[in-house]
Design a protein that fits this description.
Mean pLDDT: 79
Shape: elongated
Helix content: over 70%
Radius of gyration: 20 Å
């Protein structure tokens, strides 16, 4: 029987350490708190919205190709549900009032508005980091 090798077993270069250790550690750190998860999902969802409006819709209504809207629309719908879940999670973890989540949700309905959300979310403190800091 032929033994299958993973990419990391076959790769024998100086970049193997980077591929195995650095990149996953960075992504795990980015996904370690609610704000960063919301930031990532918000940007991916916004990109899918722009693809839906800018590519799939013209393909359907100008060139008569409805399959593009079905595929991209389904992906966008799933990402939007993930975004709503991440927004609820961030609201509970950050102990926000209803105002910030309301405006974040409203921004998700307008193209390019999630870029504003991204800049605002970068400035938000992580409550886990605040509790970890030693008292001076």
């Amino acid at each position: 029987m032929h033994k299958r090798h993973s990419t990391f077993e076959v790769l024998n270069s100086k970049y193997q350490i980077l591929a195995i250790y650095v990149i996953p550690a960075y992504h795990l750190r980015m996904l370690s708190n609610a704000i960063n998860r919301l930031r990532i999902i918000s940007l991916i969802e916004a990109l899918s919205y722009l693809v839906l409006l800018g590519i799939a819709m013209p393909l359907k209504y100008i060139w008569g190709e409805p399959q593009a809207v079905r595929v991209v629309g389904m992906a966008h719908g799933v990402l939007f549900c993930l975004f709503c879940g991440a927004l609820l999670n961030a609201m509970l973890v950050q102990k926000w009032s209803l105002k910030p989540p309301f405006w974040i949700f409203m921004a998700s309905l307008f193209p390019f508005a999630p870029l504003w959300v991204e800049m605002w979310l970068k400035q938000q403190p992580d409550p886990q980091e605040i509790t970890r800091r030693p008292a001076a």
